[in-house]
């Protein structure tokens, strides 16, 4: 039996990742930032939900210590603050603290357990790791940072048997993107730019994560893999 931690795994892309890993035979701990998120999570076989704030070192350390064995870590916890608020330095810093520093905090805390069993990490970058954002500069900066953090940890930890990769999702159908999906104008613009002509599903991200964690990807580390229906290739 293999054991995985999926931060931000109680909703959206993270929930899709948790489901894919459970189908792939992992015992998964999926975290949500609040007890409400955890309570709302529809539990399924192989997945346990727990509360975790990735900005709390104490909470992170306690959760990692609860694992007797840890084979995989997937960092999906993240926020975006819309309406241009991320141009304010405190909001900008908050987004980086969750998305970028939170990712590092989890990786560093899990390092020893992953090294014991030759475990692997998959981080969540974004197509905005490559593009800027006129409305969410903190999110774009944090996801660019996640891409470079992924490459840096891959180089630093390879000799300890830890592979570190990232997925860069495109436009995925979640509660977060529902307003865009329901807007004919906005959705039409997105689909016109996406060669595959449709929105992605959370489980499609999860299936790629499962591959990156698998033995089939044993010589893959430091990769940032777009899963965006071709959006970033246009």
Provide a descriptive summary of the structure in words.
The chain is α/β, with parallel strands linked by helices. It has a single domain (2-233), classed as Rossmann fold (3-Layer(aba) Sandwich). Helix content is 44%, strand content 16%. The chain is built from eight helices and seven strands, in the order βαβαβαβαβαβαααβ. The chain has helices at 12-23, 35-40, 57-65, 89-117, 137-157, 178-181, 184-193, 202-213; strands at residues 2-7, 26-32, 47-51, 72-75, 120-124, 163-169, 224-227. It has a seven-stranded parallel beta sheet with strand order 3-2-1-4-5-6-7, sandwiched between helices. Strand 4 (72-75), helix 4 (89-117) and strand 5 (120-124) form a beta-alpha-beta unit. Helix 1 crosses helix 8 (202-213). The protein starts with a strand and ends in a 7-residue tail after the last strand.
CATH architecture: 3-Layer(aba) Sandwich
Main structural class: alpha/beta
Q: Uncertain segments of ≥5 residues (pLDDT<50)?
A: none
Rounded radius of gyration (Å)? 17 Å
Distance between the termini: 41 Å
Looking at CATH, the homologous superfamily is: NAD(P)-binding Rossmann-like Domain
Domains counted in the coordinates: how many?
1
The geometry reads as globular
CATH topology: Rossmann fold
Organism: Modicisalibacter muralis
InterPro entries: NAD(P)-bd_dom_sf, Sc_DH/Rdtase_CS, SDR_fam
GO molecular function, one term: oxidoreductase activity, acting on the CH-OH group of donors, NAD or NADP as acceptor
Family: Belongs to the short-chain dehydrogenases/reductases (SDR) family.
């Amino acid at each position: 039996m293999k054991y995985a931690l999926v931060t931000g795994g109680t909703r959206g892309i993270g929930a899709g990742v948790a489901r894919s890993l459970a189908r792939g035979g992992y015992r998964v701990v999926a975290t949500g930032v609040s007890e409400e998120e955890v309570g709302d999570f529809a539990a399924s076989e192989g997945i346990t939900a727990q509360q975790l704030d990735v900005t709390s070192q104490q909470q992170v350390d306690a959760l990692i210590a609860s694992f007797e064995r840890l084979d995989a870590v997937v960092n999906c916890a993240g926020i975006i603050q819309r309406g241009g608020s991320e141009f304010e330095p405190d909001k900008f810093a908050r987004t980086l603290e969750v998305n970028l520093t939170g990712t590092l905090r989890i990786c560093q805390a899990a390092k020893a357990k992953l090294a014991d069993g030759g475990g692997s990490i998959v981080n969540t970058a974004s197509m905005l790791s490559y593009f800027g954002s006129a409305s969410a500069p903190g999110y774009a900066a944090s996801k660019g940072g996640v891409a470079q953090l992924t490459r840096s940890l891959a180089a630093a930890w390879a000799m300890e048997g830890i592979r570190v990769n990232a997925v860069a999702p495109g436009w995925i159908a979640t509660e977060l993107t529902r307003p865009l999906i329901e807007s004919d104008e906005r959705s039409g613009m997105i689909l016109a730019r996406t060669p595959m002509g449709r929105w992605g599903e959370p489980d499609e991200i999860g299936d790629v994560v499962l591959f990156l964690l698998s033995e089939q990807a044993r010589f893959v580390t430091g990769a940032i893999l777009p899963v965006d229906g071709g959006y970033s290739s246009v």
